[in-house]
Amino acid sequence: METQPQFGWGLLLIILAAYAYIAFSIQTIAGKTNTANAWMAWIPILNIWLLCEIGGRPGWWVVLMFIPLVNIVIATMIWGAVSEARGKASWLGIFILLPILNLFLPGYLAFSE
Q: How many domains does the chain have?
């Protein structure tokens, strides 16, 4: 009997850790911006709604996040608005488009002063 590689479990752990990091970062951003219902950061789709609230964007923009190519523009705009809400430059929203660097944006906005 052949043993299967354990790559799947390691990848699952990495994905779960990344999700927990991003959710905790969004929850922290919501707390620092005095946005209600920070717990929504842990629930898929509701976390996008929460980001819209933090950035002062309408909640219906969540629907736009399900339209291919449009979601790229909307995500950049939402994260730019979240950056402004944290007192940072709105152009930081562009970092959400860059692989690897997009993992640092939520942490930077959450844990910087």
A: 1
Q: Is the dihedral of CA 72, 75, 79, 85 positive or negative?
A: positive
Look at residue 50 and tell me if it is in a domain: yes
Residue 78 to residue 93: CA distance in whole angstroms: 7
Residues in Cβ contact with 70 at an 8 Å cutoff, skipping those fewer than 6 apart? 64
d(Cα 32, Cα 60) in Å, to the nearest integer? 23
- Is the confidence at residue 77, as pLDDT, over 90? yes
For 104, phi then psi, to 5°, come to -85, -25
Containing domain of residue 93, as a range?
7-111
DSSP E strands: which ranges in 5-107? Answer: none
- 65, part of any domain: yes
Q: How confident is the model at residue 52 (pLDDT cuts 50, 70, 90)?
A: very high
In a domain, 48, yes or no: yes
User: Which tokens is 22 given?
Assistant: 């991003």
Residue at 2 is within a domain: no
Confirm if 85 and 8 have CB atoms less than 8 A apart: no
Predicted TM-score (pTM) of this structure: 0.89
